[in-house]
Amino acid sequence: MSLFVDSQRVRFHKAIWADIPAMQELDARLFPPHSSYDMETFRNLMLDATVTMIVAQAGREMAGFMILRLGPGREASALTIDVAPSFQGHGVGSRLMALAERMARYQEIAVMYLQVSTNNSGAIRFYERLGYCRIRFMKGYYGGEEDGWEMEKKLIGHSGATTAGKDQPSLAP
Ligand SMILES: CC(C)(COP(=O)(O)OP(=O)(O)OC[C@H]1O[C@@H](n2cnc3c(N)ncnc32)[C@H](O)[C@@H]1OP(=O)(O)O)[C@@H](O)C(=O)NCCC(=O)NCCS
Fold it and tell me: From ligand 1's centre to the CA of 88, what distance in Å?
């Protein structure tokens, strides 16, 4: 599974321990300290059996990643999504979200939730374009310094049928 950005091939894989320093570095570049993850948080997420991290890799460079929690029950959460500035606007983020949604559907998860800063209009537009709706305003959600929106997308229709194919996503670690 891959994508081309300016003739560079971007490949997608499940994160391994060696990916963590580059993930943490990218997160610290994209987010202020009150909303970025430190190394310990990344290590704990890596050890959490309910969490999957998907990396988009372009040669030696990390183009982006996303962190997904499957559960509890029939709910999933997109904990974060990061695309390196030079790769933004070329479909990497959309592909990461599509992979996450496919993994969730495969486990018969009905709804995906995520949180986004109310100041992050670019990301809100990105999520709305992918079918996410704002459902809750969260005052001071980011360390008391920024407010957030909770957003959701239904992954399974009223009939219980999935809204996309149920092929098992194959992402080599
Ligand atoms: C928000 C974010 C994850 C989006 O990722 P991305 O890779 O830039 O997203 P995509 O390229 O898939 O889509 C973004 C835009 O590119 C356009 N696009 C999609 N595929 C494209 C392609 N192949 N070529 C050119 N443009 C494309 C889309 O139309 C979209 O435009 P729009 O949102 O203005 O309508 C990314 O910008 C990012 O990491 N931002 C900083 C961190 C952040 O805010 N994360 C969210 C935290 S909640």
Answer: 5
